[in-house]
Design goal:
Three copies of one chain form a homotrimer. The longest helix of chain A has 29 residues. The two termini of chain A are 13 Å apart. A two-stranded parallel ribbon of chain A has the order 1-2. Chain A is globular and about 55 Å long. Chain A has 431 residues and is mostly helical. At the A-B interface, α1, β1, α2, α3 and α7 of A face α2, α7, α8, α11 and α14 of B. Chains A, B, C: InterPro entries: Ammonium/urea_transptr, NH4_transpt_AmtB-like_dom, RhesusRHD. Chains A, B, C: It holds the Pfam family Ammonium_transp. Chains A, B, C: This is Ammonium transporter Rh type A.
Amino acid sequence: MSYETNMRFKLSVLAIGLQTLIIILFGIFVRYETPHNADPQTNTTLRDDTFIDLYPLFQDVHVMIFVGFGFLMTFLKRYGFSSVGINLLIAALGLQWGTLMQGLWHLHDGKIEINILKMINADFSTATVLISFGAVLGKTSPVQMLIMAILEITVFAGNEHLVGFLGASDVGASMTIHAFGAYFGLAAAAVLYRPSLKDGHVNEGSVYHSDLFAMIGTLFLWMFWPSFNSAIAEHGPPQQMAIINTYFSLAACVLTAYAFSSLLEHNGKLDMVHIQNATLAGGVAVGTCADMNIGPFGAMTIGFIAGIVSTLGFKFLTPIVASKLKIQDTCGVHNLHGLPGILGGTAGVAAAALGAKPGCSPIMQGAALAATFGIAVVGGVLTGFILKLPIWGQPPDPNCYDDSIYWEVPLDEEEPENNYHNEHGKVKIEA
Amino acid sequence: MSYETNMRFKLSVLAIGLQTLIIILFGIFVRYETPHNADPQTNTTLRDDTFIDLYPLFQDVHVMIFVGFGFLMTFLKRYGFSSVGINLLIAALGLQWGTLMQGLWHLHDGKIEINILKMINADFSTATVLISFGAVLGKTSPVQMLIMAILEITVFAGNEHLVGFLGASDVGASMTIHAFGAYFGLAAAAVLYRPSLKDGHVNEGSVYHSDLFAMIGTLFLWMFWPSFNSAIAEHGPPQQMAIINTYFSLAACVLTAYAFSSLLEHNGKLDMVHIQNATLAGGVAVGTCADMNIGPFGAMTIGFIAGIVSTLGFKFLTPIVASKLKIQDTCGVHNLHGLPGILGGTAGVAAAALGAKPGCSPIMQGAALAATFGIAVVGGVLTGFILKLPIWGQPPDPNCYDDSIYWEVPLDEEEPENNYHNEHGKVKIEA
Amino acid sequence: MSYETNMRFKLSVLAIGLQTLIIILFGIFVRYETPHNADPQTNTTLRDDTFIDLYPLFQDVHVMIFVGFGFLMTFLKRYGFSSVGINLLIAALGLQWGTLMQGLWHLHDGKIEINILKMINADFSTATVLISFGAVLGKTSPVQMLIMAILEITVFAGNEHLVGFLGASDVGASMTIHAFGAYFGLAAAAVLYRPSLKDGHVNEGSVYHSDLFAMIGTLFLWMFWPSFNSAIAEHGPPQQMAIINTYFSLAACVLTAYAFSSLLEHNGKLDMVHIQNATLAGGVAVGTCADMNIGPFGAMTIGFIAGIVSTLGFKFLTPIVASKLKIQDTCGVHNLHGLPGILGGTAGVAAAALGAKPGCSPIMQGAALAATFGIAVVGGVLTGFILKLPIWGQPPDPNCYDDSIYWEVPLDEEEPENNYHNEHGKVKIEA
């Protein structure tokens, strides 16, 4: 199949059109939350403190979204510009659209009132798309990703509202962000399956320094995950428990991820793919019950299991998913967000059953997990079919995982060029 | 022209001399602001809370100064050590000198009393020099940059005081930092014009990984800009508005920067220069009216325009400025700080006219913008003439944009060496 | 000597065993500190505010531990995976073990109660091992480092308790972390001396981009050091002084580090080793008296001296320590943590004598410094002998400083491969 990959008018018209539409909608619907328009019964001083108290946690989440997700995906040798650059584009659009889509479910006098929690949630909403981006990384155009951002965040906001309506608790969003983003992306990737890539692609690998760039992403995600899981928790002990639980879950997860990475290779060597990703599974898996009274012991147990499940997933499940289910999951989001997200949702069911959070019902936790999974898959499949239309400038198979199809790449890019020609004996196909 | 570029005694004597002088001045003039020496009428408890409440915002600004500006300039293939290293040197000197120069305008009992606002402002003062550094990057010695830091911060502090005296508002410093730093640097660059570089230089470009390093700078600037624009805002709604406005202005700016980057290339490809820089113009442009009641709608409109103006500037204005005005602007600071700074100042005039901040006069806003521009140009020209003296170890033309003239560079630096020899067929000129 | 370097079962069994043990100990001994189990006489509201107020400082320290230390050591051309990856492994284990070892000295009802100060201290305890890691970097296996982490943190917690028992003040831990970690690591390195490496190793150097990666570590350490030195200081003026003192000490240190780096080379060029390390010595050296009333003047003087001492150490002392004392200090931790740590302890003695902190005795400060030095050396020697047992998978001499012995390294790693073959004419020895 041949595509027209010149995005000159597609990208510019779509981006400017969407931005103009959003500015108009903001003009109609969005205003600051200030003491003036806030509920007069509310303690104004408290609101002021809440904003500045939560602002550091917001900034931690912000770093996770833009540096964490962005650099985590720079492991590919020729796809760093797109990873970090399209990540920025998606997230910048997504946080605006998320403000609208989430805000429409919580209007005050017909208005969306911006406060720090709205900003944190807007950043959260972009995370779903960035997770899905990981599943289709290297095989989509920026235009496709803008469309996915609009569609996925719309569905996400509805599902999130449904989960709240069910009375389920998911403070760190194991279900509503991680499982949702993963299965939405995997469903879309299934529809976008490319048979000619089933034996791999010359660009689908890392070089030494690209793996180090990716570690920047890993570490900022790892360090700030306690903020992610606690940012919207109730002030006081629940928020503190969310921080403590995530801190210890992640620490335990690192040990098992390293152990199993070494154990699974016959020569006992560590695999950067596991270290970059499976070390984070403890943050995903402890999300749902982060603010529950599971004890540091409980949190570490969850992290312990998550590190094992994730590493096993990368080693054994990803090849099966690719060959049997025809899902090409570039970054292995199934192992970092999918499985640990389900693990987190299941842990939430168990914790609710054990009474770890007053008012939480295990049945409703389970219903939320099931609904999230179902809605993500259906949403992802439908989005996949829309993205499959051959008009969005998607890359031809030989140009997958290659920045140069959408970016001006420096000519003196010695290193990857050499690899390409010397090691694989193929001529680069120009767009 | 031939220069003596060995900095062994010039740099060490100047650095130690300046540092010794500063320590003596600190011994005479500087003390902590503590409840003991603070105004007894002031609420001491509040002061304590202010310090720790604003400390996270200070640290965000700190990251912008040292990692943001430092890495943003590492895009050059052979000039990363200087970009991030001389950035550190300038800023470390500048924050000390800025403390003195700004503090002299606000003495208490003949003393400068250090608190968190003084530290934020000290970091701010270094930003002006780092912006100017971008204009002359690759064409100056560390010794010249130390001199520029001393001179520019002295003038900056005076202009900042004048702007305050005029009663103009500039919370995010579109005028006093961004426009000032840009036009000061451009004026100096005009004086330091090097005719032999008018057709470019073999080192004046990026390689693949240097562009990724630069994205570290871009992202930390982008993420923490809401802190920059709000750090010295009035506590409560003004500070919250400054955060919200900057957040949304930057998001809108990303969309238009990507759109115009793609639109301006006939093949529709994105240009890393635009992505690294123009995506930040929304933070600059919303600075002056960040704490004004312009609404999220207003903020996004400013960001929307800034992304377009900045990208157009890189594409069309930079070549004209170089050929007609004889100003070689290495990093394109005119497009990231100059034009968006003027845009921000102008938006401040308009917002003041619309009554977006009580007590703000559009006339005084305009006067502040004009004064800032004039003082920056005059100060930059005078500084340029001082820096032009052939005694500061500046690099000869063939050694511009080359770390190895001032740094021990690893011998096994394969990649850029190869580029230099293979692609350009020239022999490296040793200092 | 020949070693079995396949870590498949050693690493996995040790990591899983330690993690399982820790989870059991956490189940028995560790719980949250909440109003419920906190002392009823304590102001609950204050405790809540303390957690969220200190959380940003905790996160700054967290970034220093994982990104700061991790990337600082990526300067080696072939050892980036290990630097940043084993740093993560050590710190993830260490913060759990540190929670237990430090907590055992401060039980409440037989329990360790987790709060934000416990988390900050847990992170602190890992810093000692990461400093020692710098001394033996490239010459140890991950298994050895896990063992060192367990042993060193156990000794560290005891020494820290002793220092507190003596009534000595060390808020920024110049003595208990920096000097302790350095001399512990140097003592271990002395025992692990490898004669065949005395003339250097082909891998023991940097490439251009590895030096830039290391600057990421340097800058995050530099920027967040005020948080490190103030995180556990008393709320109010002492904490504010700790921030201010560290800020200015570090700034002064940069100037002298640059000055002496240039001065010590006959051609006046700057050396990246100095810039990456000696610029940080001001943070180490001001640690002990950070919360004392030494004045900004005093803080800057300490930083001024530290930058000189550290740079001189790198230039003149490291070669002597290697040749005469047979201590191969890969990262030069003696110059960054050892000497400045002793300088900091000594400054603490002087400040106490001058009455800069009420209740501080110069004699006890001196006793704490001496005890710390002695315990570190004895602990390090004993640990060195345990690590010397030829069963921990340590690398053979030719494979030192080489990731590929413990990591799957991308085959297309052009750059270092070329260097290795072309410049040194040697064939890589496969593990």
